[in-house]
Specification:
Blueprint (H helix, E strand, L loop, with lengths): L1 H9 L2 H21 L6 H5 L2 H25 L3 E11 L5 H14 L5 H20 L7 H7 L1 E9 L2 E9 L8 E5 L5 E7 L5
Parallel strand pairs: 3-5
Antiparallel strand pairs: 1-2, 1-4, 2-3, 4-5
């Protein structure tokens, strides 16, 4: 359950970082426009912004640790029967949430924070219950593609999400990490043989 929560929260890291930067820039603008009313301390000592930055860093570290732990396993070679790119499937619906959150949300307004937390709880329940790990722009930024693939092993068809820096297609022979999670990583794509 913890790994699912980390995957869910990490999906919003880019949005939280953008919102945090927005609040910093608004604070700087306030200091420059009205120095008699605002001080630099109100920008860099703002407890909301400090806590939010700490959360961003902690979730980022947890995601990095989760991904590294998954890679510290063995690998095996498979031949892909079917390949479906899941990265772009929900692109517009997913990013509309980012736009919604960025329009007027303020990370320093307690009412906006409460609304954001409630929105994240509702989305989190859906995300975690439905294993929507392919809807994660943070992983997409660093790994490029998330595929749902089918392959055979011991005469059974296995379906798995594979995070890959290269494009995959049916018939490709690849090495993947043995994974305890719902997803795994491409280790190596074998060169095509003629």
């Amino acid at each position: 359950m913890l790994r699912k929560l980390v995957m869910y929260l990490s999906a919003f890291l880019p949005m939280f970082l953008i919102m945090w930067i927005k609040e910093i820039l608004l604070g700087i603008r306030n200091v420059l426009d009205k120095p008699w009313k605002y001080s630099w301390e109100s920008v860099y000592l703002n407890p909301y912004l400090i806590i939010e930055f700490a959360i961003i860093v902690l979730v980022g570290i947890a995601l990095f640790g989760l991904l590294r732990r998954n890679r510290n396993t063995g690998a095996y070679t498979i031949t892909l029967k079917t390949v479906k790119n899941r990265s772009a499937e929900y692109y517009l619906a997913y990013y509309s949430l980012f736009i919604l959150a960025l329009i007027e949300f303020s990370l320093t307004d307690p009412v906006d924070l409460m609304v954001l937390v409630l929105l994240l709880i509702v989305l989190g329940i859906v995300y975690i219950k439905n294993d929507l790990f392919f809807m994660n722009p943070t992983i997409n930024i660093f790994q490029s593609y998330i595929y749902e693939v089918e392959y055979e092993t011991n005469q059974a068809t296995i379906t798995k999400l594979i995070i890959s820096p290269v494009k995959l297609s049916e018939g490709d022979i690849i090495d993947i990490d043995i994974s305890e999670f719902e997803f795994t990583f491409l280790r190596r794509k074998h060169e095509e043989r003629n």
